[in-house]
Amino acid sequence: MFSRKSFPLINHISRRFVENLPKNIRLELDPDVNKQTESNDRKLAFFKEHKGKFHCKTELPRKLEESINAILSDIEPQRLKIDRKSLQDHLVERRLPLERRELQSIAQNVIENLIKAEPPINTLAMSPDQREQVNLLRQRELVKRLKSSIYHWQPLAFDEYKSKVYLAANFAAHYAMLVQIFNEIKRRERDFQPVRMLDFGSGTGSVMWAALHTWGKRAFAELLNIDKSREMNNLSQLILQGGQQNKVPLVPNVIYRQFMPHGRENTFDLVVADHTLFELENRFERLKTIRSLWYNVKPNGFLILVEQGTIHGYTAINEARENLLYRIATSGDSKEKSTDVNSEESTTTETDDSSSSERHSSPAHMFSPCPHELICPKKQLNIPCRISTRYRPLQIFDIKQNLPDYTMTDMSYIVVRKAERDSNDVYMKWPRVIEPIVDRKHHQHVRLCCPNGQYVNVPISKNKHGVGLHRLSHHAAPGDLFPVTGEVIQESPIVEKEVPTVSEPRKRQRRAYRT
């Protein structure tokens, strides 16, 4: 149990105030992990590996990397290097498209500021030509300020060359993050064997290759890739053919489409949308797409949404999370828990058919990274919740010597399972490490997202928590489950000691001397 009562501590990573773990809570290490840390066997007592450890290092398979290099071999290396860097910068700075009410609010503020800054002008004393000239200058200044204040969103358009640049820039990072997500699903749910997978916004096929790496080529009877760009689909199919045209694909049962299939509900074990929500033109289209993806998930299946690890990517993911948990997937109790979460959504979803939503309603719970279904604690602090992974960048031509062996990437994601939460699952009782560990001289600061919906900081030291927990915290990384549970220590009431009453000092009697 983690309480809200705490003391604030400055988070040196996010520069925000984080609640400190109360002193009356004792952390208990999982018995299996505790046995592992106390073992005399060095291989067993390896603190970097335990059943809550999901942060990993990933590199592309050799044959896959050779196929990509064969496709990119017709591009000049220096040009590819420059274009790849510019595309990566553009994607990091990208924002969601503004809604109509946001545009109206920004325009109203710009007009008010323009009126305040304008000096008083007597237009009655002007000629018609002078008034027209003043109005023209006002309009130009207004347009200039609006352009500088409003983000101009445009969907990404890909031709053959831009598709190859996107392949070189993002394939390795997206592949690594999906491998980490899929590995967690495989390790936690050993009985789960996916047969059909839907990848919405498949792009170059990084999701498909990550799934094949995790479960094997023979596990899937259908791999459906949907992308509106024909060039992206052709490039993904060319990778399947080893970079050579008219060659037999390396993986069978792969299908490419440009549009979402109709009438195939409860069909897929895995439904993934990787870096796709930013391509939808408004909020209504995003929520409509998420609803459609959720209806395609089988019972006990998974819906996975991944975006950039920026504040705007986190906003898109959290918007989808709240809509799934409180409007699409569940009803009744979950809606009562957060009556104010989606108060703004009522204006855009009033036209939805209530009967159809009840018909499609199904239980759901957050599988990863959130250990709860409550409001995200980082939303109030305006901090992006993102998980990092280590990966080896794609080695291309002469750029190979200039790239590091491994690098880091941050992404915001959610994994939602179409099933009720299992109360006996030990993984559901552990908090999640959601920020890098802050090392100090004799202790570490671990930032955790707890099962009760709280975001807390836990200072862990050897003297207070023991050697095992201290070593685990030293090797923890964002994305790992921290194998501890919190127990409230019942403090015994303090009994005040009776203070003896101080009697008045005796008057000193004079001693009588005999004469």
3D structure, described in words:
The structure is a single chain. The protein has 515 residues and is of the alpha/beta class. The chain folds into three domains: 104 residues, no CATH class; 282 residues, Vaccinia Virus protein VP39 (Rossmann fold); 50 residues. It is built from 15 helices and 17 strands. Strands 4, 5, 6, 7, 8, 9, 10, 11 and 12 form a nine-stranded mixed beta sheet that branches. Strands 1, 2, 13, 14, 15 and 16 form a six-stranded mixed beta sheet that branches. The chain has a two-stranded antiparallel ribbon with strand order 3-17. α9 links the parallel β8 and β9. It comes from Adineta ricciae. InterPro entries: Mt_RNA_Methyltransferase, Ribosomal_Rsm22-like, SAM-dependent_MTases_sf. GO terms for molecular function: iron-sulfur cluster binding; metal ion binding; methyltransferase activity; structural constituent of ribosome. Keywords: Iron, Iron-sulfur, Metal-binding, Mitochondrion, Transit peptide. It is found in: Mitochondrion.
Tell me the layout of helices and strands.
Layout: E1 8-10, E2 17-20, E3 25-29, H1 31-37, E4 57-58, H2 62-71, H3 77-92, H4 100-117, H5 128-149, H6 160-188, E5 196-200, H7 206-215, E6 222-226, H8 230-240, E7 254-257, E8 268-274, H9 283-295, E9 297-308, H10 311-328, H11 333-337, H12 354-360, E10 365-368, H13 377-381, E11 387-391, E12 407-417, E13 432-433, E14 438-439, E15 443-449, E16 455-461, H14 462-465, H15 467-474, E17 484-488
Parallel strand pairs: 2-16, 4-11, 5-6, 5-8, 6-7, 8-9
Antiparallel strand pairs: 1-2, 3-17, 9-12, 10-12, 11-12, 13-15, 14-15, 15-16
